[in-house]
């Protein structure tokens, strides 16, 4: 019954989000702990495009200290910890309220299986009558049934358990944002509920959460971005030589990068690639500074600059790869993507997906890097993803 609530790619988004760099975001506990322990309001994490909101949410969801704070809040009642990541480049379930409801139900019932029967009485009756082997033949779960299941579940919050819910990417929800906000507020009104959400500062969310406890990511990440930039540049021999010979000049270059980033982690990540190439190529300090000064601070303008760096001989291939990704209604495995790109070849699909899998993955990584300058990439689970949702936009 619990398994039937899941859907394909349920945890893909969380896995695709990069981990926090080194000791980044440790400052969050000073900003969040008081609200987590004393406030009954929705906690809103907001920030610019590419500022690192999803990475921060993943950090909070996975950090033991957060659970310890919430366990203290839940006192003698069981704490149920639930998380969901909206993702507009993912499947329909990853973009809709149905996916959110299925995830909440599934994660709660997994942690408290004793309430499966009263929460899902129809499924439970089917299971008891026909047996475990027939559960897969049960009627498809309708929206009306999901609502009834969730309504029944809500009745246990505060009595049977305390709910801590983290929802990332409200702005990636496919539907009326007001509907989602109303749902979150209704759930927060239940005693024994704490909710933390994240989104870009769209007007609809600013109006809804402006009086709630709030954190703007870009206001607090300067030190984290500097640590990240030093780490990325430090991978190159050229920067290490500059740092050892002219430490003040190396530090100033880092500071200039951090200042121009203006709190946007993604911008630094993209620019670091360009500057690291310069370090590797032996560019002079003045040349590196000129490169930095010439790069646009706006993320979308930077994407255009990256696009123009694609070799003319690869432009046709690049367009084809982006068309495949954009046309896909769900994330494609690298093997499937490779087959779609190799449409002129006569390929044994079974052989391509087994015996040659290592070759295919390596080939796709190199191809995406050269044809898209890293704007498309093979993720940790071997699916092809956009570097960031803003690339798709």
UniProtKB/TrEMBL annotation:
Keyword check for Repeat: yes
InterPro entries reported in the protein's UniProt record: DUF7791, NPHP3-like_N, P-loop_NTPase
DUF7791 domain residues: 322-392
Keywords (A to Z) from UniProt: Repeat
PANTHER family in the record: AMELOGENIN, NACHT DOMAIN-CONTAINING PROTEIN
Source organism superkingdom: Eukaryota
UniProt source species: Dactylonectria macrodidyma
SUPFAM superfamilies referenced in this protein's UniProt entry, alphabetically: P-loop containing nucleoside triphosphate hydrolases
Protein name, entry field: NACHT domain-containing protein
The Nephrocystin 3-like N-terminal domain, residue ranges: 26-200
């Amino acid at each position: 019954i619990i398994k039937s609530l899941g859907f394909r790619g349920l945890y893909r988004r969380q896995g695709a989000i990069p981990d926090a760099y080194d000791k980044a975001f440790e400052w969050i506990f000073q900003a969040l702990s008081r609200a987590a322990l004393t406030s009954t309001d929705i906690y809103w994490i907001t920030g610019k495009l590419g500022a690192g909101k999803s990475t921060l949410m993943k950090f909070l969801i996975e950090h033991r200290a957060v659970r310890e704070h919430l366990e203290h809040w839940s006192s003698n009642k069981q704490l149920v910890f639930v998380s969901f990541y909206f993702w507009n480049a993912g499947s329909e379930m990853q973009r809709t309220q149905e996916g959110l409801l299925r995830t909440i139900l599934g994660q709660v019932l997994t942690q408290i299986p004793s309430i499966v029967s009263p929460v899902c009485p129809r499924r439970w009756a089917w299971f008891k009558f026909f047996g475990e082997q027939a559960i897969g033949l049960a009627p498809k779960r309708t929206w009306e049934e999901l609502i009834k299941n969730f309504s029944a579940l809500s009745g246990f919050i505060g009595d049977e358990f305390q709910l801590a819910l983290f929802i990332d990417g409200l702005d990636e929800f496919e539907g009326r944002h007001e509907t989602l906000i109303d749902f979150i507020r209704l759930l927060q009104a239940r005693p024994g509920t704490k909710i933390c959400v994240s989104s870009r500062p769209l007007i609809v969310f600013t109006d809804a959460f402006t009086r709630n406890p709030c954190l703007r990511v870009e206001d607090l990440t300067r030190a984290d971005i500097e640590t990240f930039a030093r780490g990325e540049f430090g991978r190159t021999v050229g920067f290490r030589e500059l740092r050892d010979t002219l430490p003040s000049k190396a530090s100033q270059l880092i500071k200039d990068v951090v200042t121009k980033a203006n709190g946007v982690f993604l911008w630094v990540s993209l620019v670091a690639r360009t500057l690291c190439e310069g370090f590797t190529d032996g560019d002079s300090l003045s040349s590196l500074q000129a490169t930095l000064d010439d790069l646009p601070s706006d993320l979308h303008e930077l994407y255009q600059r990256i696009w123009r760096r694609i070799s003319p001989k690869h432009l046709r291939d690049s367009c084809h790869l982006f068309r495949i990704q954009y046309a896909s209604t769900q994330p494609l495995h690298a093997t499937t993507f490779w087959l779609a790109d190799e449409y002129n070849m006569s390929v044994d699909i079974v052989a391509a997906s087994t015996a040659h899998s290592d070759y295919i993955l390596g080939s796709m990584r190199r191809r995406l890097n050269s044809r898209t300058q890293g704007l498309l990439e093979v993720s940790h689970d071997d699916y092809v993803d956009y570097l960031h949702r803003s690339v798709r936009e």
